[in-house]
Amino acid sequence: MQIFYFDTLELPRRLSETAGAFPRGLCFMNDDVRDEPLLLTPGPCSISMAVKQAMLHDLAFGEAAIVAKVKEARDYLVALCRGDGDYTAVPLQGTGTYAVEAAIGTLVPRDGPTAGKLLIHSNGVYGDRIVDVCRQMRVPYAVLATTPLERPTVEQFEQAIAADPAISHVAVVHCETSTGMLNPVDEIAALCRRLGKGLLIDAIATFGFVELDARRLGFDAVIVSANKGLQSAPGLSWVIARRDALARCKGHSWSHSLDLWDQHDHMERTGQFRFTPPTHLVLAFCEALKEHNEEGGIAARGRRYGASWRRLVDGMRQMGFQTLLPDELCASIVATFHNPDDPNYSFKKLYDGMKARGFVIFPGRLAAANTFRIACIGVVTERDIGRAMDALADVMREMGVTRFGRGAAGTA
Ligand SMILES: *Cc1c(COP(=O)(O)O)cnc(C)c1O
């Protein structure tokens, strides 16, 4: 894929759209032919034509080309979190949740003399999902539940750990995508280091555009998905694990297919997946990493998402919408808005109206709070968000909504 930075150049964003000078910013050239709605949802997200085209090959098991691509991807991911030498990236067939299960099931031993216990922090849907994972796998766990509306404090973690000496590991979601809350992993990592606890970070929503420095944070594992900030096709996921932590975990896993130790051991010895390799997804993923690098890595992608997010939140506020969270608590992946308190408003009409205009948005996940969400990850630019804001204003006019203030809780 080519990424062009425009000052004055004019190019169509879709075949059906030829008007309009591009403002300064980024344009994903090959997406000109996109004639399906742009996904303003936090997964799946829209990916580039080049990433999709990279999948148009059938490679056989063990072919040198696929072995080389897997290695390339593993090296890139480890380098992205500055984990060279001490860390290893293990791919898994499956979405992010599969990697969450594999990491916990392998790195937190359930029983025996080394049995551990996982302190799970939750302030939303994805923290709760880790609880579900542990309950079903019968991994010993304790839950630190904090309000979804305020940033958790490191004191809360310290108290929870002090209250239960059995705790060996801590799990935290970096960005809680159900609200957009960015949890303070730096402070939590420092605490875990001080107390000698292993740290597992669900960075599925943030990896690739928010810095996560393995040398500074010293985590045991970071969980990553191919979709979301890395902008590849969903269905492939990764655990970036500390080599010495993983090396201790032979035979810990409760599951054969999700045995991270075995997957890693096999890959180190043969360069290959244990089972049918997801060849098309690996090819797509390497293309997506090339785009990531060409865009300028974490910093540049963070700036693009940040600019889109700013435009989104400012645009919505200008219309009168209210956000669930104050800006300083959020990651620039998604924003959560209160449904307006107007009898003419219906989320379904908003959703359908936006889709008809080329954008897919998302209902809220905190049912009680009566919200909806708009994300800005994937091949989305600030300009796309500008067009989405125009479309949204148009839909609201069509609906006859005049009051944009916060609706009553629990009436979604
Ligand atoms: C998307 C996401 C996941 C994984 O969800 P899948 O449906 O398995 O892809 C996990 N955690 C967070 C924070 C996410 O945003």
Brief descriptors of the model:
seven-stranded mixed sheet; globular; binds pyridoxal-5'-phosphate; three-stranded antiparallel sheet; Aspartate Aminotransferase, domain 1; alpha/beta; 38% helix
Secondary-structure element string? EEEHHEHEHEHEEEHEHEEHHHHEHEEEH
Helicity range: 25-40%
Instruction: Based on Cα principal axes, name the global outline.
Output: globular
What portion of the residues fall into strands of 2 or more residues?
Answer: 15-25%
- What is the number of beta strands? 16
> Which ligands, by name, code or SMILES, are bound?
pyridoxal-5'-phosphate
Number of domains: 2
Question: What is the CATH C level class of the largest domain, in words?
Answer: Alpha Beta
- Termini separation: 41 Å
Low-confidence stretches: 1-27
Query: For the largest beta sheet, what order do the strands appear in spatially?
Result: 4-12-11-10-7-5-6
In this structure, how is the largest beta sheet organized? 7 strands, mixed
- CATH superfamily label of the largest domain: Type I PLP-dependent aspartate aminotransferase-like (Major domain)
Instruction: Give me the CATH fold name of the largest domain.
Output: Aspartate Aminotransferase, domain 2
Shape-level CATH architecture of the largest domain: 3-Layer(aba) Sandwich
Helical run tally = 13
Mean pLDDT across all residues, rounded? 91
Q: Indicate the radius of gyration in whole angstroms.
A: 22 Å
**Which class of secondary structure composition applies to the elements?**
alpha/beta
